[in-house]
Specification:
This protein is α+β, with helices and mostly antiparallel strands. The protein has 10 helices and 16 strands. The protein is about 20% helix and about 20% strand. Strands 1-6-7-5 form a 4-stranded antiparallel beta sheet. Strands 2-3-4-8 form a 4-stranded antiparallel beta sheet, with helices on both faces. The radius of gyration is 25 Å and the shape is globular.
Length: about 475
């Protein structure tokens, strides 16, 4: 998911086109626009025609949304709204109609060049008719005239002080919003609610709650002011570090099997939020349900345990993000474990993986999953090499049994409240009875140490 920092960075890229007039599609001397078909706008024809000759007067972000405001000769405003979803991206660049002026290809990233953008706009460079600014977006939801310019500006003014990446961010406003508007929600739902805390996404939520030592299932009105202020502070810091560097900070629990703070194998994984489980009291917004990670030792559900260790562990979290982690002693660790927690993804101590690339050794190895739904090897896992051009490949499921239908079982992870984070082996076509209609056998069995240990530390919950 493209969260607030990514959207804000995209908004900054667009500023190069502000004040310039959109124009009809043109052919430019750029390797990424070589074919005539690629130089036409993916927008509906009437939209592209309507935007032509209009000037981009404003470009601003609110949370995870980017608004582009165009003005025509009659000073009537039209708005494009962009939402980047899971994998959306945006690029703004200059290009030339004269190939001799094209110094270098400054287009899309290599992995985007073969994909058709869902948005492409051209802007004239003043009196220079040979130079254009091109704005392109991929895998992005683009809405035209679904919101008025006044409504977009009103949203900016109303939420700007709570936008986690805004230059005008006010911690007290964010605190008050969480305390009042989110009082009956779980803290997970409250943080993800874009009317309460714009720009916060699942990764920011998970890592900020961990650094704040707060269990994600807690209801906001059960949190003390000190806990809530700590959450606001860590949420802002994690987001701004991401915004300034372009990369998410150290992930201490997100997609981890071992807690990066205490070093314990106490990371739990569960799909929670949206008011859809008994641990929350949201408004039934199932779309807000997200796979969430937390450490049952560092983030105990009991407030008394959390308060007793908050000071020491918060200092430890700060040191751990700077690469100086030292686990707590086993005695400290075991005293804080939530005894009622379900078995987690890290059921066994990860052993050293024996797989290695013949050319590049063990450090370049990574674990992947087959995603081709039409393959007989769907969802099987394998080892490959991270380095570009290396052809190393090896199946990683040699210790897995076959299911009754004769196929290799596949390794999955539970996301339920009762057993969230626990690995299991099943038929690649599913484990419910309805899977028999798809030629599956419905086989299911919990994974054992002999199945997990050979995968070592390469195994991650979101594999």
């Amino acid at each position: 998911m493209v969260e607030g920092p990514g959207c804000t960075r995209n908004g900054r890229k667009v500023q190069i086109a502000v004040g310039k007039a959109a124009t009809a599609a043109v052919h430019v001397a750029d390797s990424n626009d070589a074919s005539p078909s690629s130089s036409t706008s993916p927008l509906p024809h009437h939209v592209a025609q309507e935007l032509s000759e209009q000037t981009l007067t404003e470009a601003f972000t609110v949370g995870k949304e980017l608004f582009l405001v165009f003005s025509d000769t009659n000073e009537k405003d039209n708005v494009l709204r962009l939402h980047f979803g899971m994998n959306g991206s945006l690029n703004a660049r200059r290009a030339y109609t004269n190939k001799s002026n094209q110094k270098k290809a400054s287009g899309a990233a290599p992995w985007k060049q073969n994909k058709t953008p869902c948005l492409r706009l051209y802007f004239t460079e003043g009196c220079n008719s040979s130079c254009y600014t091109i704005l392109e977006a991929w895998e992005t939801t683009v809405n035209y005239k679904t919101v008025s310019a006044d409504a977009a500006r009103d949203k900016l003014f109303r939420l700007n002080s709570r936008d986690v990446c805004s230059a005008l961010f006010n911690a007290q406003d964010a605190f008050t919003s969480l305390r009042q508007a989110g009082q009956h929600m779980s803290i997970s739902d409250a943080l993800l609610n874009q009317d309460i805390f714009p720009g916060v996404g699942n990764i920011i939520k998970i890592e900020s709650l961990h650094r704040s030592l707060v269990d994600p299932r807690k209801i906001v009105n059960t949190l003390s002011d000190q806990e809530l202020r700590r959450i606001v502070r860590h949420t802002r810091k994690f987001s701004m570090d991401w915004l300034n560097t372009g990369r998410a900070g150290t992930k201490l629990v997100y997609n981890q099997t071992v807690c990066g703070t205490c070093g314990g194998m106490t990371v739990k994984m569960q799909k929670i939020g949206g008011g859809g489980d008994r641990n929350t009291s949201g408004n039934g917004q199932a779309f807000m349900s997200r796979v969430t990670f937390w450490c049952t030792a560092c983030q105990p559900l009991s407030s008394s345990l959390a308060a007793g260790n908050a000071s020491n562990k918060e200092n430890f979290v700060q040191h751990s993000t700077m690469g100086t982690t030292q686990p707590f002693s086993n005695q400290q660790h075991s005293s804080n474990i939530n005894n009622n927690s379900a078995p987690v993804a890290s059921q066994v101590q990860p052993l050293r993986c024996n797989a290695q690339c013949p050319q590049h050794g063990t450090k370049s190895i990574k674990l992947c999953r087959t995603r081709n739904s039409n393959s007989q090897n769907t969802l099987r896992i394998f080892f490959t090499c991270k380095l570009k051009g290396c052809q190393y490949f090896s199946w990683a499921d040699a210790t897995f049994p076959f299911c009754p239908c004769g196929k290799k079982t596949v390794l999955r992870v539970s996301k339920t409240e009762r057993s969230g984070g626990r690995w299991f082996l099943c038929c690649s076509l599913g484990v419910d009875k309805s899977s028999k209609d798809k030629n599956g056998c419905g086989h299911f069995d919990w994974a054992k140490e002999e199945h997990l240990a050979p995968l070592g530390s390469h195994l991650s919950p979101l594999l």
